[in-house]
Design a protein that fits this description.
Elements lengths: L7 H6 L9 E6 L5 E10 L4 E8 L1 E4 L3 H9 L18 E4 L5 H22 L9 E5 L8 H9 L6 E6 L4 H10 L4 H5 L4 H5 L4 E8 H5 L7 H4 L2 E8 L5 E10 L7 E3 L16 E7 L2 E6 L11 E3 L2 H29 L9 E4 L4 H13 L20 H9 L8 E8 L3 E9 L2
Parallel strand pairs: 6-7, 6-8, 7-13, 15-16
Antiparallel strand pairs: 1-2, 2-3, 3-9, 4-5, 8-9, 10-17, 11-14, 12-13, 16-17
Helix pairs in contact: 3-4, 10-11
């Protein structure tokens, strides 16, 4: 199992993301200027490409405490300082203090650049894009996806889908794009997965979490989270084919991970009903919003229980979600007389290394031995962006016909797991 994760020595010596050889770095002229780095990735044999990156100043594990203490106005105690290398992280990226309007302009500029870079990585003109689906935990604006699509030059006729299910957002978006049997897809005027077969689609997660952390007082959150984004281009049914998948909700009654909802939601719970609300603004704009356990303090964006609380919240239910989809996958392979086939790699949300290691260990006990590489040491926890960044970092080593498991989980608590076959 240890061969699937990054070693402590590698974590200490990994270069800054901005120093990677294929990262394009520019400065966005907002406030004092904000650096943005984007790396494009393409696998021509699969017909899949994309772009990922981050923005803001990089703080490593040695310099981050000074930034945090400046924001809090007092020093962290030794007990409050997390062993971030042990949790799989070496750096996070943070933006300077900006006005609300500047934060929106910055994140729209970032999102538009990433959409354009992802399309270019696929060899597509931006005018060819027929859908954009983005997971965002705490959006800077309710119409964020519409704004970035317009600024990038995506056609007005293209479908825009915003998915607000915390860290599960990007995998939930991918599930919507590929799985026609999801309850949400069946409830819409037009099933998203059926609509997008054979179309050029961009799917991902964009998380400007350092904007949120300017208001945070939670000592764990301000050490763990940072900015990050990942968008991949695919053609459903051709370059990526749905095999099996599922979605589930297990509401966080105890508020182990509390997140402020900055998107439209009634905040009402209905007995024996989903906590997901869907708004179809028109045929080209859909918002999927999950109810969160919110902090009592009106201005607090996020509150977290201790590390063991996170483990209990995500590992038990997460293992059940993966187990169910993996069994459905094995059954499908048996039906196709392909019992010898298996998942090549699992792309798991990078909450932190300890959570992922424990989840992997529990799955191994059940005979589910899928490689789950740790791939995001230089970003911190970037919520819904992490699965797509991880997939793009794994992309070069994948080949046509490979089966990949996407495992998303997030506050709320929401789980999306699906297995896909990569085409060419």
């Amino acid at each position: 199992m240890g061969e699937n994760v990054t070693s402590q020595a590698q974590l200490k010596t990994a270069p800054s993301f901005f120093e990677r050889p294929y990262v394009h770095v520019e400065e966005i002229p907002i406030g004092p200027g904000v650096p943005l780095g984007i790396e494009q990735v393409t696998n021509p044999a699969l017909g899949i490409g994309g772009a990922y990156g981050t923005w803001g100043v990089a703080y490593d594990n040695q310099t981050l405490p000074e930034l945090i203490e400046k924001r809090l106005g007092y020093p962290l105690t030794p007990e409050e300082r997390l062993n971030l290398a042990e949790l799989g992280f070496i750096s996070r990226h943070h933006v300077p203090e900006l006005s609300e309007e500047e934060h929106v302009r910055l994140e729209v500029s970032v999102g538009a650049r990433l959409l354009a870079a992802a399309a270019q990585a696929c060899g597509w003109a931006i005018s060819e894009i027929e859908a954009v689906l983005v997971g965002i935990s705490i959006p800077a604006a309710a119409d964020y996806v519409e704004r970035i699509a317009a600024e990038a030059g995506v056609p007005d006729r293209a479908l825009k889908v915003s998915v607000h299910k915390a860290c599960d957002g990007s995998v939930a978006a991918l599930n919507l794009a590929l799985n026609p049997n999801l309850p949400i897809n069946r409830s819409l005027r037009q099933n998203i997965a059926e609509r997008l077969v054979g179309k050029k689609v961009l799917v991902g997660g964009i998380e400007g979490l350092s904007r949120v952390l300017h208001l945070a007082r939670d000592r764990q959150a301000i050490q763990l989270f940072g900015n990050g984004a990942g968008l991949l281009g695919l053609i459903p049914g051709r370059t990526m084919k749905f095999l099996v998948g599922d979605t589930r909700e297990v509401y966080d009654e105890e508020g182990v991970l509390q997140v402020r909802m900055t998107y439209p939601h009634s905040r009402q719970r209905r007995a024996d009903d989903s906590l997901i609300e869907v708004i179809e603004t028109d045929d080209q704009s859909i918002r999927v919003a999950g109810m969160m356990h919110e902090p009592e303090e009106p201005t607090a964006p996020v509150l977290m229980a201790g590390p063991m609380g996170m483990v209990k919240l995500f590992v038990r239910n997460g293992v059940e979600a993966v187990r169910g989809v993996y069994q459905a996958y094995r059954d499908l392979m048996a039906q196709r007389n392909m019992s010898g086939r298996d998942i090549a790699v699992a792309i798991v949300h990078h909450a932190n290394l300890k959570i992922n290691q424990l989840k992997e260990k529990q799955l191994w006990k059940e005979g589910i031995r899928i490689p789950m590489p740790w791939l995001l040491s230089d970003f911190g926890n970037v919520s819904a962006a992490s699965n797509m960044i991880a997939f793009l970092r794994q992309l070069a080593g994948l080949k046509p016909g490979d089966h990949v498991l996407f495992d998303g989980f997030g506050a709320g608590t929401y789980y999306d797991v699906l297995a896909v076959e990569l085409g060419g």
